[in-house]
Amino acid sequence: MVTCYLNYVLDPYKLKEFEHYAKLWIPLVEKFGGQHHGYFLPSEGANNIALALFSFPSLAEYERYRQDSMKDPACIKAFQYAEETRCIISYERSFFRPVFGAAS
């Protein structure tokens, strides 16, 4: 399993737009076989940083999702929404291997 960690720098005056963008992507990631762990918007501290976490069974399946999302009409609309609203200033993507508690 691989978990994608996204660290966003946002326009702090467009948090409402980013929240809408986030809600668009959660079902889209799941549509392509991923498990979305949610978006985390600013609360206390920095007012322009948000995070997202989602997992795929393998890096190969994540890459397939990335390729397929570039052709999917709903994904294209979500990309366009972010571009039109300019709610995202920049983002960084990292990948992690999750470790969970011992099996019961």
TrEMBL record:
Superkingdom of origin: Bacteria
Pfam family, one: NIPSNAP
Domain NIPSNAP: 8-99
Classification via InterPro entries: Dimeric_a/b-barrel, NIPSNAP
Name by which UniProt lists this protein: NIPSNAP domain-containing protein
Species: Metapseudomonas resinovorans NBRC 106553
